[in-house]
C-alpha cells in the first residue's frame, strides 16, 4: 500500500512537470531579456548585449534531452530562413560536459560557435535568470532586447519571428 502512494506521487509530479513544460504559465507580456555572457564552444566569450540590433533566438538545450534533440534541427532550419535578416541563434547547452555537446554538434553537422557553455554552474545560472524550468525552452528576443516569445521550440513559427524583423 505504501509503494502505491509513492507511485501516485511520482506520476502526479511527472504529469505536472510535463504540463508546465508544454503549457508555460509565465507572464507573456514583453520584458527585457536578462543580460548574460558565456563562452562558446570555440572558447570565445559571447555576451547577449553584443546582439542588440539583431533578433536573437535563444534556446536552452542538452544532448541528453530527447525532446531537445528532436526539436533542434527544425529550430536551426527556421532560424536559417532568416539568416539574411540579422537573426541569430544562440544555444545554451545544459550538458554536464562540454565535449558531449561538441561531439553531437560535429557528428550532426551543426555549428559550434553559437553554442554556449562556460561551465555547468554558469549555464544553469543563465537558465535560472530566464526562469526556465524544463528544456527545451526557446525565447525570441527583439532588436531592442525585449523577449517576444517564450516556449517550446516546436511552437515557434515564422509568425513569432517575422514581426520583429
- How would you describe the shape? globular
Rounded to the nearest angstrom, the radius of gyration is: 17 Å
Q: Which strand order do you get reading across the main beta sheet? A: 1-8-7-4-5-6
Strand tally = 8
Largest sheet: 6 strands, mixed
The string of secondary-structure elements, in order, is: HEEEEHEHEHEEH
Figure out the total of helices.
5
CATH class value: Alpha Beta
CATH superfamily: Glutaredoxin
The residue-averaged pLDDT reads 86
Share of residues in strands: 15-25%
Helix share bin:
25-40%
Which class of secondary structure composition applies to the elements?
alpha/beta
CATH topology: Glutaredoxin
Tally of separate domains: 1
List the keywords.
six-stranded mixed sheet; globular; Glutaredoxin; 165 residues; alpha/beta; two-stranded antiparallel ribbon
Describe this structure in words.
The longest helix has 21 residues, at about 1-20. This protein has 5 helices and 8 strands, in the order H-E-E-E-E-H-E-H-E-H-E-E-H. By secondary structure, the protein is an alpha/beta fold. It has a single domain (about 30-165), classed as Glutaredoxin (3-Layer(aba) Sandwich), CATH 3.40.30.10.
Write the layout of secondary structure elements.
Blueprint lengths: L1 H21 L8 E2 L4 E3 L5 E3 L7 E7 L4 H15 L6 E7 L4 H10 L7 E2 L3 H10 L7 E5 L4 E6 L6 H4 L4
Parallel strand pairs: 4-5, 5-6
Antiparallel strand pairs: 1-8, 2-3, 4-7, 7-8
